[in-house]
Amino acid sequence: MKVTVEASASSANLGPGFDVFALALDNPRDTVTLKAEKSTRASVGIDSVKGIKTPSTASKNGAGAVCLAIAKDFGIKERISIEMVKKVPIGLGMGSSGASAAAAALAMDQLFSLGMSSDDLIFYAGMGEACASGTAHYDNVSASILGGFVVVRVGKRPAAMSWPAPKDMALCLATPKLDLPERKTEYARSVLPSSVRLDMMVSNVANASLIVSGFARGDIGMIGSGMNDRVVEEARKRFIPGYDAVRKAGVAAGAAGVCISGAGPSMLALVDAKRYSPRDVLKEMIRGFGSVGVEATGLTTVVGQGASVL
Ligand code: HSE
After folding, report:
1. Is residue 268, in this structure, part of any structural domain at all?
2. pLDDT per position as a tens digit, 35-83
3. Looking at the 3D structure of the chain, how many domains does it have?
4. Best of 8, 10, 11, 13 to mutate for ligand 1, by most ligand atoms within 8 A of CB?
5. Which residues are catalytic?
């Protein structure tokens, strides 16, 4: 028995939607292949990882942790072996752990015909995030599983919904070359405030509402106008030299909005590709990093589909 699943990278938060919003990116993507063999006792092992290096002990690997959790909850007794092709870069704010955790959850569901709902898949994929970053957050995994723009409600069990992106929406991701802490997301979460002022909450609710309304109406300008956060980015921007310059440069080149991608350090811009050139926006964002002496690389892509069985 063998199943291969592909799941794409993602960009979480979109500014005010910390832990609630994310966009699936069309590329890069991770693939996870699971094989099950009869065995006298349940076990999960990582047979091979191609591409970007990732932990090879199942319990320390996001995809492995998801398989272990599902095997335990569903009483699966087989030996499960994992082969991964890891292309989503780790620690750059593109939902790397989420992509392979999402692929692993769907692969387990298919391999053992578990009949999980998308919210069940998101719940288990969140365990991969917990393994990688210390906290089970569900925004990235929701996007990698459902595709499009997602909103996830967090409670005892996550519940997510997805909207397609407006037709001409392009995405630019500019990534500065920085020395980052090893468990970067865990670190980037540790600097966040535990309480917020009422005026900041009001501002974030208004901006988040603009983003959701923009997706409902297919209005890229409205989505971009909501990409302003006064809570999380305020705390994180000091770790991203050039943050202000990159936002300014992106908007000046035509971006509808610019924000930190996930926990950073990449910056995401949304562009109406019918009116502006995504390549030019990216070039200006990279120049923005350059203006403070930071080298950067980048990519342009579009909003991606959800995880799929190959
Ligand atoms: N919402 C999460 C955070 C995403 O910002 O910490 C991490 O990719």
Report:
1. yes
2. 999 988 889 999 999 999 999 999 999 999 999 999 999 999 999 999 9
3. 2
4. 13
5. 129, 185
